[in-house]
Specification:
NDH-1 is composed of 14 different subunits. Subunits NuoB, C, D, E, F, and G constitute the peripheral sector of the complex. It is a peripheral membrane protein. Its cofactor is [4Fe-4S] cluster. Residues 177-210 are annotated as: Disordered. By secondary structure, this protein is α/β, with parallel strands linked by helices. α3 packs antiparallel against α7 (158-173). The chain has helices spanning 8-13, 23-32, 35-46, 59-67, 102-111, 123-127, 158-173, 177-181, 190-193; strands spanning 49-55, 78-79, 90-94, 117-121, 149-151. The chain has a 5-stranded parallel beta sheet with strand order 2-1-3-4-5. It has a domain at 35-177: Rossmann fold, CATH 3.40.50.12280. The longest helix has 16 residues, at 158-173.
């Protein structure tokens, strides 16, 4: 009996890569999804928030206190200390953001995958705090990245951070990715977030020394 060798494996190895949906298509696809699926997806995001803590000053100590055994925000589905921004869903900016540190905050926020959320923790992160009139202090982290929840205080107590997390979870539970990333959304576009805030160093040519 003749056996004709099948060639799906070779065809699969040479197949063109599958194109992922761009942010413009993301909103359209989410609107077409059934409502029960949206509820399940929002429920999963709500209780599996990997946190990237951007601690800059004394408010970071209160963040650490909120993650310890006494307050234990892991019971709310919040996992602290993500390995890096590419594995995080939530950035908590706690402390004074200076103009020199602002490019780093913006660059790390851009590295986080969508959907991503930001909590501004403390008066300094919200508006500059007692240093609002300093020549070197950014007047709030919302000047460079979009913020979902503001937690006031100088510094806020750990209970305030727990309340801010609950507020964020309520927002995630009722959000629609179509409104968040569609043309009708109020968040900045990808092009706006990738503004020329951080300039890449020039690449040396072959005849120049690095």
């Amino acid at each position: 009996m003749d056996v004709t060798p099948a060639a799906p494996a070779a065809a699969a190895s040479t197949a063109a890569p599958v194109a992922l949906p761009d942010p413009q298509r993301l909103g359209v696809l989410s609107r077409l999804a059934p409502q029960p699926m949206k509820v399940v997806l929002n429920w999963g995001r709500r209780y599996s928030l990997w946190v990237f803590n951007f601690g800059l000053a004394c408010c970071a100590i209160e963040f650490i206190a909120a993650s310890m055994a006494r307050h234990d925000f892991i019971r709310l589905g919040v996992i602290p200390l993500a390995p890096g921004p590419r594995q995080a869903d939530l950035m908590v900016v706690s402390g004074t953001v200076t103009d020199k540190m602002a490019p780093a905050v913006k660059r790390l926020f851009e590295q986080m995958p969508e959907p991503k959320y930001v909590i501004s923790f403390g008066a300094c992160s919200n508006c500059g705090g007692p240093y609002w009139d300093s020549y070197s202090v950014t007047k709030g982290v919302d000047q460079i990245i979009p913020v979902d929840v503001y937690v006031p205080g100088c510094p806020p107590r750990p209970e305030a951070l727990l309340q801010g997390i609950l507020k964020l979870q309520e927002k995630i539970a009722r959000e629609s990715l179509g409104r968040r990333y569609g043309s009708e959304g109020h968040r900045p576009s990808t092009a706006a977030l990738r503004s020329g805030l951080v300039e890449a160093p020039p690449t040396p040519t072959s005849g120049e020394k690095a």
